[in-house]
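We were asked to recover a plausible sequence for a given structure. The inputs and outputs are reproduced exactly as logged, with field labels preserved.

PROBLEM: sequence recovery
POSITIONS: 652
GIVEN STRUCTURE:
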C-alpha cells in the first residue's frame, strides 16, 4: 500500500478484506476498532439435506444447549451452522475431538432434523477444534484513513466486514457490505471533493450499520442464552425467537403473518383464562387479565409509581392525588400504583411527599381507593418506601436530589453517605435500634394500607433510597451482618419485607421494586439483581418491579427504547419470578411484544401517563381493539376517536 501510494498509482484504496481485515489491524490507530469476541463457538457446515424454510433447531445435551441455523443455498445443498456457548462446548469435550469427530458429534446430535443426511465441513484444512470459531463483533470509530507515503497521500476506506460485523443470526452481513459498496459508489459519482464524498459515505452508512448492529447484538445475546428461554412454553419460545432482535415488533410480525400472531394471541388469552372461540379475534396480549394470589388485574398495564410532590406538608395526600390517580384508573390501566408513600416523617424525599403513618393519612387514601373501586375496574397498589440518605430534598422540578435550604431533618442510610458530594446532607449509618424502628414503621404503614383498602403492596427497594442503599455495595459498606455479600446486604430489606408480608393479607400480592443495575463500576449488575430477586421470591414476593439506577450520582446509564426490559426478562427467566417491565415503553405495540414474548408479566408506563391519563384506552383505540372497557361517561368521546382513526387509516 505504501509503495502504491508513494508512486501515485492510486487515488483511493478500498479495504474490503473481511472480518479479520489486515488493513484494519495495520491502521488500528486511525480506525480505532472495537472488537468484542462473543460467547458462542460455531462451526460452519453443509448438508445435502434441503430445507424449505430457514430452520432453527435446538438440542439439549448433558453439557447444555446446542443450536443449528440451517438454510438452503443451492438446489441440493444447505448451510448448517452449529453453535453453543464456549462453556458448553468445553463441557461436551469438543475441544479434545478431531475435526472429523466433532462433525460426527453434530451429525448425531441433529440427526432428527437432518433426517439421516450427513454433515460436511468446508474447512478440512483446519485441524481439531480450529474449525470452531467465535464471532467477533467489530465496530470502528472511523472508516477512513489518509495514508501518507513518500510525498503523497491517498485515502484507505473500509467497506463490509472490514468496517463492521453483524452476527450471522440476523443474516445481514452481505447485505450491509453490498449496501456499503452501492453508497460509496453513489457518493464518489456525485463528483464532489473526494474527502467530502468519503465523509458522506461514512456518515450515511454508520447510521444504518448501527441500527443493524443493535439488532444483531440482541439476537446474538438471545442465542448465547438459549437456556434462559428454554423454560418458556414452545409457543412463547418461538415468539421470543422471532422477535429476539427487537427489530420486528408485534405489529410488524402481524403484517408479515396475521394468522400466526392471532394464533399466538389466542393461545395466550386462553392461558390467561379467557374463553376465545377459534373463529373469534383474540385480544392483544396486554388486554388479558393477570391473576396473582386472590387478585385479578383486568389487563397488563400498570401506572408506574410517580411522585407528585403535592401532598400537604404533614404527608396527607390531597385532591391532586384524588384527581391524578382517579383519572388514571378511569383511563383504562389495570393497576394504578401510588407514588412512593413514606412510612414516617423522616422517611420522606421531600416535605411534599405522601405519607402513611396516621389515621388521617389512611382516611385520605381510603377516599382515593374507594373512587378507583367504584368508578373503574382498575386495582390500586400502594408503594411504600423510605428515602434514607436521599431525603430532605427539594421538589423534582426545583432541583432533583438537591438538599432543602432549610427545614430538613436528620438522615439515616445503610452506611454514612453524602449522595451529592459536597452538596447533600450527610446521612448517618443506621444502628440496630434504627432498624427496629424502621421495621415497625413499615408494618404500621402496611396495616394502615390494609385499612385503606389497597389491593396491592409494593416495597420500594430501588433508586438509592434507604433499602436500595442496603442492596448496593457502593452505598452499603457495613461491617456487621447487614453488609458484605449480596445475601447479607439484602438482610435488612428482607427483614422489612417479611414483617410486611406477615401483616399483609395472604390473598393479596406484594411486589418489590429494585434497581437491577447501578450503572457504576463495582456496583450491582443484573447478576446480583437475579440473586436479590431469588431472595425476595423465597421470602414470599409475587413480583419484581424491575427498574435500574439512581443509586449513585455518577452513574452512567445506557438509555434506549425499552432499555430496562432486558433486566425484567433475565430476572423472570433466571430467578423464576414474575416481573414488571418499565422504562421508555411508549406504545401498545412494544408492550404487547414484551408480554407475548414472556419478557415480563406486567408493563409499567410512567411518563406517557403524565401526558395522557387514558393511555391504555387511547392505545386500544389506536390499534383497533374494541374490547377495552371505557367509562360510560366517555363513550361519546370513544365513538368520535374511533371515527377519526378509521378516517386517518383510510387516507393512508
Ligand atoms: C457463519 C456465518 C454465516 C453467515 N450467514 C450470512 C447470511 O446468511 N446472510 C448474510 O447476508 N451474511 C451472512 N454472513 C456474513 C457474511 O458472510 C459477511 O458479512 C460478508 O461475507 C462480508 O462481505 P465482505 O466482502 O465484507 O467480506 P468477505 O466476504 O469476507 O470478503 C473478503 C475477501 O477478502 C479476501 N482477502 C482478505 N485479505 C486479503 C488480502 N490481503 N488480499 C486479497 N484478498 C484478501 C478474502 O479472501 C475474502 O474473499 C455470515 C457469516 C458467518 C460467519
Ligand atoms: C415524575 C416522576 C416521579 C417518579 N416517582 C417515582 C416513585 O415515587 N417511585 C418509583 O418507584 N419510581 C418513580 N419514578 C420512576 C417511574 O416509576 C418509572 O420507573 C420511570 O419514569 C421510567 O418509566 P417511563 O420511561 O415509562 O417514564 C418516577 C418517575 C417520574 C417521571
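RECOVERED SEQUENCE:
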Amino acid at each position: 500500500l505504501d509503495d502504491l501510494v508513494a508512486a501515485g498509482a492510486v487515488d483511493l484504496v478500498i479495504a474490503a478484506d473481511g472480518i479479520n481485515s489486515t488493513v484494519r489491524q495495520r491502521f488500528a490507530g486511525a480506525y480505532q476498532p472495537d472488537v468484542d469476541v462473543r460467547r458462542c463457538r460455531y462451526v460452519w457446515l453443509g448438508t445435502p439435506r434441503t430445507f424449505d424454510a430457514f430452520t432453527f433447531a435446538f438440542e439439549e445435551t448433558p453439557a447444555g444447549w446446542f443450536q443449528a441455523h440451517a438454510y438452503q443455498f443451492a438446489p441440493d445443498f444447505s448451510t448448517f451452522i452449529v453453535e453453543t456457548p464456549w462453556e458448553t462446548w468445553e463441557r461436551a469435550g469438543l475441544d479434545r475431538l478431531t475435526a472429523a469427530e466433532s462433525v460426527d458429534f453434530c451429525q448425531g446430535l441433529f440427526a432428527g432434523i437432518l433426517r439421516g443426511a450427513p454433515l460436511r465441513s468446508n474447512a478440512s484444512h483446519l485441524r481439531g477444534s480450529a474449525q470452531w470459531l467465535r464471532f467477533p463483533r467489530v465496530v470502528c470509530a472511523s472508516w477512513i484513513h489518509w495514508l501518507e507515503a513518500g510525498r503523497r497521500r491517498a485515502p484507505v476506506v473500509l467497506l463490509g466486514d472490514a468496517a463492521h460485523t453483524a452476527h450471522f443470526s440476523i443474516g445481514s452481513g452481505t447485505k450491509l457490505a453490498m449496501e456499503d459498496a452501492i453508497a460509496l459508489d453513489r457518493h464518489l459519482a456525485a463528483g464532489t471533493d473526494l474527502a467530502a464524498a468519503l465523509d458522506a459515505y461514512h456518515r450515511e452508512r454508520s447510521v444504518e450499520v448501527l441500527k443493524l448492529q443493535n439488532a444483531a447484538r440482541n439476537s446474538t445475546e438471545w442465542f448465547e442464552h438459549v437456556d434462559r428461554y428454554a423454560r418458556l412454553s414452545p409457543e412463547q419460545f418461538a415468539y421470543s425467537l422471532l422477535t429476539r432482535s427487537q427489530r420486528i415488533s408485534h405489529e410488524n410480525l402481524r403484517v408479515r403473518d396475521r394468522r400466526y400472531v392471532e394464533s399466538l394471541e389466542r393461545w395466550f388469552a386462553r392461558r390467561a383464562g379467557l374463553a376465545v372461540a377459534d373463529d373469534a379475534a383474540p385480544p392483544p396480549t396486554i388486554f388479558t387479565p393477570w391473576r396473582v394470589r386472590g387478585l385479578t388485574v383486568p389487563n397488563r398495564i400498570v401506572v408506574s409509581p410517580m411522585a407528585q410532590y403535592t401532598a400537604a406538608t404533614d404527608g396527607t395526600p390531597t385532591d391532586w392525588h384524588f384527581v391524578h390517580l382517579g383519572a388514571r384508573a378511569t383511563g383504562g390501566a389495570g393497576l394504578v400504583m401510588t407514588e412512593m408513600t413514606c412510612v414516617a416523617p423522616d422517611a420522606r424525599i421531600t416535605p411534599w411527599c405522601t405519607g402513611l403513618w396516621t389515621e388521617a393519612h389512611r382516611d385520605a387514601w381510603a377516599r382515593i381507593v374507594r373512587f378507583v373501586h367504584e368508578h373503574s375496574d382498575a386495582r390500586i397498589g400502594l408503594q411504600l418506601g423510605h428515602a434514607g440518605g436521599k431525603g430532605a430534598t427539594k421538589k423534582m422540578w426545583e432541583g432533583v436530589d438537591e438538599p432543602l435550604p432549610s427545614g430538613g431533618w436528620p438522615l439515616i442510610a445503610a452506611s454514612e453517605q453524602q449522595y451529592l458530594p459536597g452538596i447533600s446532607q450527610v446521612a448517618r449509618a443506621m444502628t440496630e435500634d434504627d432498624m427496629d424502628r424502621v421495621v415497625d414503621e413499615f408494618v404500621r404503614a402496611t396495616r394502615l394500607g390494609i385499612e385503606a383498602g389497597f389491593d396491592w403492596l409494593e416495597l420500594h427497594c430501588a433508586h438509592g433510597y434507604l433499602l436500595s442503599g442496603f442492596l448496593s455495595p457502593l452505598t452499603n459498606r457495613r461491617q456487621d451482618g447487614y453488609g458484605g455479600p449480596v445475601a447479607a446486604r439484602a438482610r435488612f430489606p428482607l427483614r422489612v419485607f417479611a414483617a410486611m408480608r406477615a401483616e399483609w393479607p395472604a390473598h393479596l400480592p406484594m411486589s418489590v421494586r429494585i434497581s437491577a443495575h447501578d450503572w457504576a463500576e463495582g456496583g450491582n449488575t443484573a447478576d446480583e439483581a437475579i440473586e436479590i430477586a431469588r431472595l425476595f421470591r423465597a421470602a414470599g414476593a409475587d413480583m419484581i418491579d424491575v427498574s435500574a439506577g439512581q443509586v449513585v450520582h455518577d452513574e452512567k446509564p445506557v438509555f434506549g427504547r425499552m432499555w430496562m426490559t432486558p433486566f425484567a426478562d433475565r430476572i423472570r427467566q433466571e430467578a423464576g419470578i414474575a416481573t414488571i417491565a418499565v422504562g421508555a415503553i411508549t406504545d401498545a405495540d412494544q408492550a404487547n411484544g414484551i408480554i407475548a414474548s414472556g419478557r415480563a408479566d406486567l408493563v409499567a408506563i410512567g411518563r406517557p401517563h403524565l401526558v395522557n391519563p387514558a393511555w391504555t384506552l387511547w392505545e386500544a383505540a389506536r390499534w383497533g381493539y374494541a374490547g377495552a372497557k371505557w367509562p360510560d361517561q366517555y363513550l361519546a368521546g370513544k365513538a368520535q376517536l374511533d371515527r377519526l382513526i378509521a378516517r386517518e387509516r383510510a387516507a393512508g
